[in-house]
Amino acid sequence: MLRMGDFDITELTKWIIRSDRRLMTLRSFRHSQFLGASDISRSTGRSIQNISTGLQELEKRHAVEQLEPGRRTWKKYKLTSLGRSALDSVERELSAGMFERVADELSYKYVREAFRLIVSDPILVTRQMKLHEVVDRVLADPRTRSAYVVDEKRRLLGMIGLKQMLTAVEGSLLIVDKTRPQTRTKRVMLPFSVEEYMVRAVTVSPEDRLMTALQRMIKNDLEDLAVVDDQGIILGELNGFEILLLGSETMKRQARS
After folding, report:
1. How much is the average pLDDT of 214-224?
2. Is 69 left (phi over 0), alpha (psi -120 to 50) or beta?
3. Helix (H) or strand (E) holding 134
4. Bond preceding residue 191 cis, omega within 30 of 0
């Protein structure tokens, strides 16, 4: 197996191909020696934030580096020697069908490989907060539709999902709309506190299989799951889009076959 210093090129190649963000960022250097996040964003149609994250990830693996002082203010990057080797390897593997082989590995992936791909920090709230404060936080980051209720040690107590937030909105509208005929009696919980609306959170651990997490999502009609350690402390959120990201290549391969 090809090695370069302490880096395994094959594993680095697989790591890049597993992320569309990293793959698109690296391949942008095929025709340009120096690139910044805005350059790649314009050519790929991706957001600058998405590409900046890809560059940071590649920089941590020593595949790209910023230009030396004097030009660093441009925030331009170039491939390292490792990055050039990785790009060559990526191109070879793409033509040889590594996408299909990586897709086939989905059933063997773990939660630890998926969570934080899209949502790096879950929305954490306390049971004393007002529900409108939770709604504001969710609206500020629409990638997630859930907030997690924790104590002072980040131990998970429950969650507020989109369904609970919409239920509260319905209750608020029923109070305001005095003229609307009431077809049924409904107890409206006031004053719309987190403690009143929180429900039990469905959880997974980083060591759970991704397929197990997906089945748990479907069974409980959820789009997000809390990721916790063995002490019940929340580590992050497994977002449905993260599973969709990893599973999309499997569906593409099946459609082609």
Report:
1. 92
2. beta
3. helix 131-140
4. yes
